[in-house]
Design brief:
Layout (H helix, E strand, L loop, with lengths): L1 H21 L5 H23 L2 H14 L1
Amino acid sequence: MDERNARLRTYQKNIDRYHGLLQTKLSETEKLYIEKRLFEERFAIAMLVFTSPRAVSKADNFLGKLE
């Protein structure tokens, strides 16, 4: 759990940093790169949350109720 939380904090810090960079003067190429990195960091968070044991057990419980 500690490793998961550390990874989540790192992803969030990166997202915050990228948001700050987007507030500066950037070329179009730089802006596109930062926006791509933002998407990748958000996706990494979503995957980490989705694949956590807690999320999986909740999904299993939900799917079990459907059967």
